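Batch job 17 of 40 flagged for manual review because the log was empty.
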Amino acid sequence: MAVWFFAAGLGLHLDASRPTRPDPAIGRIYELNNHGHVVYLTLREQLTLWAVMFGGLGTAFVGIGLGIKGQPARPVSMKRLNALNVGFLAFVGLFLVWAIFFFR
């Protein structure tokens, strides 16, 4: 869910901060249409937006697959839960650092 919220925020940011006319000289030719408001992105911006959107979709499918694998639910120990939380927070932190350096 966090990845999807980030993708929505990224899409809104790009929609608000990119020009409404294409500029082929710098490669800003890829349309982003947000309910009729069209802005133009570079290939790098377009691929980043797609990667974030499809990364969220892939994460959802992995979660669903793990949830329905057919084994009965078992209680999760606090040690394992803490390890999962630390791993998730590390992933989110690294992703945010990458995004900050990518868009500066």
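Reviewer: the log was empty due to a logging misconfiguration, but the result itself is present. The radius of gyration is 18 Å. Unflagging and moving on to job 18.
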